[in-house]
Design a protein that fits this description.
By secondary structure, the protein is mainly alpha-helical. 89% of the residues lie in helices and 0% in strands. It contains 4 helices and no strands. Helix 1 runs antiparallel to helix 2 (46-118), helix 2 (46-118) runs antiparallel to helix 3 and helix 3 runs antiparallel to helix 4. The longest helix has 73 residues, at 46-118. It is rod-shaped and about 120 Å long. The two termini are 34 Å apart.
Length: 186
Amino acid sequence: SLGTLEESIRQAEALDQELSDLEEVVTREVDGVGFVLEALPQEVPPQLLLALEKDGRSLTRSYSTVTEASHTHLQRLRTQLISHKEAVQKELQALEAQTQVLLTWLREREKESEAEKENGEESSPSQLKHQLQLCQELELCLSDRSRELDRLSFEVQLFVSERAQDLQPHQSRELLGRLNQLQRSF
């Protein structure tokens, strides 16, 4: 989830800062090793000087490797966060679009129905038969749209419950409000 990723990024940034703070200490230690090796003290056995030189190189390599790995990990987490936010936003937009399509369709049917009521003059049997056929088609269409609304309602509620921590409060309210408006209109 978004919260988990953000917490991982905070931890990675803290580690990255700690490593950055250690850079001066590591550099000072490696420089100290260099000074000792340049002086070539006679009282220090050559094997110990060789081990000290090897440890200095190892410390430099290890610090560089850990620092690079930390930077890479932090960048990967930031990329994941961006991808996650984009995925949530796309899913939200798709649900909003589906809701809007149903709401638009419903409003168009209401306008058509109102227009039919206004044109409700004396009708011949053939006109009545035609209107009955239109009503039956509308009933089938409404039934299909009702199932679509039920499916969309489930998807929106599931999305909001699963992604609550990833959404801003106004996004959840808007989506649920649009769904509620659609359900009332239906």
